[in-house]
Amino acid sequence: MQKLLIVDDNKQITSILEEYAKKEGYNTIIALDGEQAIELFNKENPDIILLDVMMPKKDGFTVVREIRRTSNVPIIMITARGEDFERIMGLEIGADDYIVKPFSPGEVMARIRAVMRRIVREDAKPQIFTYDNLTISLDDYSVTIGDEKISLTKKEIEILWTLATSNKVFTRENLLDIVWGQDYFGDTRTVDSHIKRLRAKLEEHDHPSWDIKTIWGVGYKFEVKSNEKK
Questions:
Q1: Parallel, antiparallel, or unpaired for β 170-171 and 148-150?
Q2: Is pLDDT at 184 greater than 70 in this prediction?
Q3: Would the pLDDT of 214 be above 60?
Q4: Which of 45, 80, 196, 222 is 20 to 30 Å from 173 by CA-CA measure?
Q5: In terms of DSSP bridges, do strands 27-31 and 48-52 run parallel, antiparallel, or are they unpaired?
Q6: Are 208 and 225 spatial neighbours (Cβ–Cβ below 8 Å)?
Q7: What is the pLDDT of residue 96?
Q8: Considering Cα of 161, then 51, then 62, then 86, what sign does the dihedral take?
Q9: What's the rounded Cα separation, in Å, for the pair 54 and 155?
Q10: Is pLDDT of 108 > 70?
Q11: With 50 as the cut, is the pLDDT of residue 190 above it?
Q12: How far is CA 142 from each of CA 18, 139, 153, rounded to the nearest angstrom?
């Protein structure tokens, strides 16, 4: 039975979500603040986390950052209606999806199913890509350039993987569908923001034979600058 960690300081919300999650076959774990969320994550090793942004002791952003230091467990964040910056921030620091309050429990369960389906599809794909001095591994979500490991978020790694493993141009909409999933209701600014951060991190290391290229008016591609592959 898969474990779902529900993190929210509203006991009425956690009670309703727990009831629905149990019907979906999940073993549910409840945390009522950010510190308890970290404790239960380390103790219980959940398969997926449903995480509210506004909580006592440690907010949701802090919890995501701490978890992402050691784990790529799927995280769905719960944000307040109209707070776009919360949704963007959550995705940029490593959340896989978000739910906007007020929500229906059925929608939450549908989002959980969608995220878990994406994880299953990713696990079925080849997990390591190498070109010249670049190695991307989805086995442990790591990226190295030469002998140096690059600190990237889960979404940054997935974007780099998508671009590098296909010799084609991806529109922003393509990347949203592939990396965030067709159930994601965001805009293309999210892609641009992630690409900007990804490039900044990659530029700290020499990679003369490849780059992420902007195709103006279209999108992005993995540009091979040398015909010699290793």
A1: unpaired
A2: no
A3: yes
A4: 80
A5: unpaired
A6: yes
A7: 82
A8: positive
A9: 23
A10: yes
A11: yes
A12: 33, 8, 9
Selection from 103, 98, 76 nearest residue 88 by Cα: 98
The model scores a pTM over 0.85: no
Please name the amino acid found at residue 75. I
84: left (phi over 0), alpha (psi -120 to 50) or beta: alpha
> Can you read off the two tokens belonging to residue 146?
């030469």
Average confidence (pLDDT) over 109-134:
78
Q: Counting Cβ atoms within 10 Å, is residue 121 exposed (0-12), middle (13-18) or buried (19+)?
A: exposed
Polymer length of the chain: 230
Distance between terminal CA atoms of the chain? 43
Give the Cα separation of 152 and 46 in Å (integer).
22
Residues 142 and 134: their CA atoms lie apart, in Å, by: 11
Supply 102's token pair.
């007020």
Q: Would you call 86 helix, strand, or coil by DSSP?
A: helix
Token pair, residue 171, equals: 């529109």
For residues 37 and 45, is the Cβ–Cβ distance under 8 A? no
pLDDT in tens, 24-67: 888 999 999 999 999 999 999 898 999 988 889 998 889 998 99
Q: Collapsing DSSP states into helix, strand and coil, what is residue 192?
A: helix
Residue type, 197: R
User: At 98, which amino acid appears?
Assistant: Y
Cα separations (Å) of 197 from 31, 152, 168?
Answer: 32, 9, 21
Residue 96, exposed/middle/buried by CB under 10 A (0-12, 13-18, 19+)?
buried
